[in-house]
């Protein structure tokens, strides 16, 4: 449900350095069909063995991590998020300005 607002965020800030990757543990065909029907402007990867979730200790979906250019975790959120909110956009603007 949050993917459309993620796409909006990426469209606004992608040219300013924001990189975004979505990772799904669903089967490849399901993800491929979904990605083809929606055409999101960011990368969607498939992790059918759920290796990434296990390594990162993710126990709820969706879980979001924001990592700065130095590779430091600067934000973690469990659950859906409205990426169109002014608070989130200000946070992203600040991160991009500081990097």
What secondary-structure arrangement, pairings included, does this model have?
Layout: H1 3-13, E1 21-24, H2 28-38, E2 43-46, H3 51-56, E3 63-67, E4 73-78, H4 86-98
Parallel strand pairs: 1-2
Antiparallel strand pairs: 3-4
Order of helices and strands: HEHEHEEH
Please give the number of β-strands: 4
**Residues in helices, as a percent range:** 40-55%
| CATH homologous superfamily identity | Glutaredoxin
**CATH architecture, please?**
3-Layer(aba) Sandwich
Beta-strand proportion: 15-25%
Strand order of the largest sheet: 1-2
What structural class do the secondary elements suggest? alpha+beta
Query: How is the biggest beta sheet arranged?
Result: 2 strands, parallel
* Low-confidence spans: none
Overall radius of gyration: 14 Å
Walk me through what this model shows.
The chain is an alpha+beta fold. The chain has one domain (3-93): Glutaredoxin (3-Layer(aba) Sandwich), CATH 3.40.30. 41% of the residues lie in helices and 19% in strands. The protein contains four helices and four strands, in the order αβαβαββα. The strands form two sheets. The chain has a two-stranded parallel sheet with strand order 1-2. Strands 3-4 form a two-stranded antiparallel ribbon. Helix 2 (28-38) links the parallel strand 1 and strand 2 (43-46).
């Amino acid at each position: 449900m949050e993917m459309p607002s993620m796409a909006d965020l990426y469209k606004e800030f992608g040219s300013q350095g924001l990189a975004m990757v979505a990772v799904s543990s669903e089967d490849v065909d399901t993800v491929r069909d979904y990605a083809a029907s929606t055409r999101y402007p960011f990368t969607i990867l498939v992790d059918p063995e759920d290796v990434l979730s296990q390594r990162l200790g993710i126990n709820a979906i969706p879980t979001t991590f924001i990592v700065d250019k130095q590779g430091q975790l600067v934000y973690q959120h469990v659950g859906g998020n409205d990426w169109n909110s002014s608070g989130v956009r200000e946070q992203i603007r600040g991160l991009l300005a500081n990097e």
